[in-house]
Amino acid sequence: MENMQTINVLLTREQIEERAKEIGKQISEEYAGKSVYLIGTLKGAVMWMADIMKNLEIDTEIDFVVASSYGSGTSTSGVVKIKKDLDGDIYDKNVIIIEDIVDTGTTLHFLKKYLADRNPKSLKICTLLDKPSRRLVEMEADYVGFSIENLFVIGYGLDYDQKYRNLPYVGYLEG
Ligand code: IMP
Ligand code: MG
What we know:
Bound molecules: inosinic acid, magnesium ion
Order of helices and strands: EHEHEEEHEEEE
Number of helices: 3
Distance between the termini: 19 Å
Radius of gyration: 16 Å
Strand content: 25-35%
């Protein structure tokens, strides 16, 4: 393989799957007798979305959005655009946004307001990763898989230049 780079493992598949079970159980209990409408943010949240949904023991619908924040390199500009909207109507539904990572908070800050305008019954956020030290706008997820230090991570849905999304663990590149 060309471009061989060492990838350090930060979170193993087992750790992530275990955490998804815990959060899935928590959500199932908190929404007992109700139904939820999961909104996955493409593409980063795919693996985490699958982990969470298979651990829910309540009625569940799923949908996806694509939100892009424009900026240079790994920093965001604060301008967010919806590139693919929801397929369904979330009015009066219990919505949970499933996100890969909360970094500056810009994307979720925008997305939360965008979805709140459609008057769901409730609106929460479940993220695989949280990097609180990078926050530019106030944003707190309701369910956090793991809080991590300021590292650029890849794998388990997260990319660097569209690569590494398929890795079954969260890691970071050495150097
Ligand atoms: P925010 O708007 O700054 O919170 O950034 C949100 C998006 O930036 C995430 O949904 C990711 O797609 C991307 N991102 C932020 N940090 C990382 C990282 O460490 N690795 C890969 N993508 C990241
Ligand atoms: Mg993302």
